[in-house]
């Protein structure tokens, strides 16, 4: 009797307990994420500069965006960077992952740490270091070029080289972590599968292309989407290296940098929200693909 | 004889990897070296690699606050990252515990909401968040920088997966022994997901330590800036003291390197597992 009563009251307690555990997180999520996200979509339909009252203008912000050359430029630049990430950084990372897979590799621990460190370095520090490395006169990169009898390059001053400079930094910063992702993916592929293909007469290249790569597909989807999302979120490096103005001829203007200048320099809150919504659309759909690839929706 | 895929000989592969390591390390080494050089030496031809007359002046000038109160800003960063990490690990672990170990109405709906907000980028919220902080009168305080990010959905998502592996029998046994739900959370769920908590804590600390965009927006007065923003404000100055900037960058990176080297296995495994586990 007593036990049954205890059980009953326990069950009643149990009913509210999970909500109590969820309450702190969902309060914060509501205030700092749900409300701002919804409000951002609302604000995107208003013309509002500064803290005053906005004026409803329908889809006009989005229409203006389409013909805003600086916005289009920033999307083109960001997409250029995303493309370079996918077609330059990821293949290099995959190559490094294959090297890391060498059995009995000495100092493998040192490689893991060394390749990982650039990724956890703050964008501010990265920008500061690379401004000096890219310096036209006194940078070590140009010094290395002169040693090879090549002409010096005005990395950050020549519009043609601003994006390649940023891609080089990306290559330095993101190759390691992507190599580790690929490495983890390769660990999941049994050697026998590849060996069987080779026994059946496939060349090394065919084995890579038709056996290993398809088996890596979940990891590939993950790294590709992550690379593109990362490009659309990149801020500190282009902001500090190309400057607030976007660099020579806006050559280094990134989407997030443009959002920042419109919103927090010009205080055009409505218009900046519209940019935020566009970025939301791009990143949210890519993340959806990515989480699917990770199997987040399975359990 | 099976031709082994991709294994030809160890030595050339090892050499390529070492070259990669050199490339990865060079910017760091260059930064440390330059932080001991005078500005005149950094901007002189031909380039010197080791500092001719190693000097600590850059560090001294920086910490004495000749251009920005860097020591103060560094301290701000410690406080902000500490608050961020503490709140993040606490609220996320509690929510993750509920999702992993209880059955309740609306569970699936709420968890879908969590996953949806893993995918919402920070940029979409910047303007409204700024207006909200303005209304709350929180702009230019540590709360405005530390709090929003601390409620990120990723932490819940990550810790839920960790806590799913806690056996239900253990929790039922504790309940039969008369332990309250709060006690089960503190005495069983948290200790048993220790490694996961450490991984999330370190990741949160590093993320918050490196945060630039939102900190740049939310903070404005020099003494309240975090170190990343404070140091960045020196970049655009008319006369840039590069030795000093390099000293500042070194000080920014050192805690992260220390954290990383101490917890390297946990860190690498955690990130890979959190990201890759299906």
Protein described:
The complex is a heterodimer of chains A (299) and B (278). Chain A is mainly α. In chain A, strands 1-2 form a two-stranded antiparallel sheet. In chain A, helix 3 packs across helix 12, helix 4 (108-116) crosses helix 7 and helix 10 packs antiparallel against helix 13 (269-294). Chain A has a single domain, classed as Orthogonal Bundle (MetI-like fold). Chain A is built from 13 helices and 2 strands. In chain A, 44% of the residues are buried. Chain B has 278 residues and is mainly α. Chain B has a domain at 68-235: MetI-like (MetI-like fold). Chain B is 71% helix and 0% strand. Chain B has 15 helices and no strands. In chain B, helix 1 (10-34) crosses helix 14. The longest helix of chain B has 32 residues, at 70-101. The model of chain B has no long low-confidence stretch (mean pLDDT 89).
Indicate the topology.
The complex is a heterodimer of chains A (299) and B (278).
Chain A: H1 2-43, E1 46-47, E2 55-56, H2 60-67, H3 69-100, H4 108-116, H5 123-133, H6 140-147, H7 159-187, H8 191-199, H9 204-215, H10 217-233, H11 236-242, H12 255-264, H13 269-294
Helix pairs in contact in A: 3-7, 3-10, 3-12, 4-7, 5-11, 7-10, 8-9, 10-13, 12-13
Chain B: H1 10-34, H2 39-42, H3 57-63, H4 70-101, H5 107-118, H6 126-136, H7 142-150, H8 153-163, H9 168-176, H10 181-192, H11 194-210, H12 213-218, H13 227-235, H14 242-262, H15 264-276
Helix pairs in contact in B: 1-14, 3-14, 4-7, 4-8, 4-11, 4-13, 5-8, 9-10, 11-15, 13-14
């Amino acid at each position: 009797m007593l036990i049954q009563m205890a059980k009953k009251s326990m069950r009643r307690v149990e009913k509210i307990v999970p909500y109590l555990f969820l309450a702190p997180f969902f309060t914060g999520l509501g205030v700092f994420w749900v409300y701002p996200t919804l409000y951002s979509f609302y604000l995107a339909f208003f013309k509002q500069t500064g803290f005053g009252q906005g004026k409803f203008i329908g889809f006009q912000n989005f229409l203006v965006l389409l013909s805003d050359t600086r916005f289009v430029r920033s999307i083109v630049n960001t997409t250029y960077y995303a493309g370079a990430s996918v077609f330059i950084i990821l293949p290099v990372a995959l190559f490094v992952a294959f090297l890391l897979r060498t059995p009995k590799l000495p100092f493998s621990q040192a490689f893991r740490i060394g390749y990982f460190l650039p990724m956890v370095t703050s964008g501010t520090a990265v920008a500061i270091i690379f401004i000096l490395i890219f310096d036209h006169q006194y940078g070590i990169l140009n010094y290395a070029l002169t040693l090879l009898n090549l002409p010096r390059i005005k990395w950050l001053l020549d519009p043609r080289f601003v994006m390649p400079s940023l891609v080089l930094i990306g290559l330095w910063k993101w190759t390691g972590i992507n190599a580790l992702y690929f490495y983890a993916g390769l660990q999941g592929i049994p050697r026998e599968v590849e060996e069987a293909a080779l026994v059946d007469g496939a060349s090394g290249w065919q084995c890579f292309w038709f056996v290993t790569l398809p088996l890596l597909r979940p990891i590939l989807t993950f790294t590709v989407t992550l690379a593109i999302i990362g490009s659309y979120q990149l801020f500190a490096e282009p902001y500090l290296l190309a400057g607030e103005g976007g660099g020579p001829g806006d050559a280094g203007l990134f989407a997030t940098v443009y959002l920042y200048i419109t919103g927090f320099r010009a205080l055009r809150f409505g218009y900046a929200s519209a940019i935020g919504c566009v970025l939301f659309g791009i990143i949210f759909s890519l993340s959806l693909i990515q989480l699917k690839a990770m199997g987040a929706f399975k359990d | 004889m099976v031709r082994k895929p991709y294994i030809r000989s160890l030595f050339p592969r090892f050499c390529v990897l070492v070259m990669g390591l050199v490339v990865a390390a060079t910017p760091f080494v260059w930064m440390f070296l330059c932080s001991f050089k005078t500005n005149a030496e950094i901007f002189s031809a031909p380039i010197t690699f080791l500092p001719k007359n190693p000097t600590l002046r850059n560090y001294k000038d920086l910490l004495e606050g000749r251009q920005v109160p860097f020591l103060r800003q560094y301290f701000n960063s410690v406080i902000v990252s500490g608050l961020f990490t503490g709140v993040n690990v606490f609220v996320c672990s509690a929510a993750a515990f509920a999702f992993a170990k209880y059955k309740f109405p609306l569970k699936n709906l709420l968890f879908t909401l969590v996953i949806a907000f893993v995918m919402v980028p920070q940029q979409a919220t910047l303007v409204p968040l700024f207006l909200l902080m303005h209304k709350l009168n929180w702009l230019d305080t540590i709360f405005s920088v530390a709090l929003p990010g601390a409620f990120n959905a990723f932490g819940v998502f990550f810790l839920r997966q960790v806590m799913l592996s806690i056996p239900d029998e253990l929790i039922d046994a504790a309940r039969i022994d008369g332990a309250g739900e709060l006690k089960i959370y503190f005495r069983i769920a948290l200790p048993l997901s220790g490694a996961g908590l450490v991984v999330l804590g370190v990741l949160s600390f590093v993320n918050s330590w490196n945060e630039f965009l939102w900190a740049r927006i939310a903070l404005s007065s020099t003494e309240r800036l975090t170190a990343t923003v404070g140091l960045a404000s020196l970049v655009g100055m008319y006369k840039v003291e590069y030795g000093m900037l390099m000293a500042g960058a070194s000080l920014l990176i050192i805690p992260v390197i220390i954290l990383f080297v101490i917890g390297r296995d946990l860190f690498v495994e955690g990130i890979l597992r959190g990201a890759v586990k299906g």
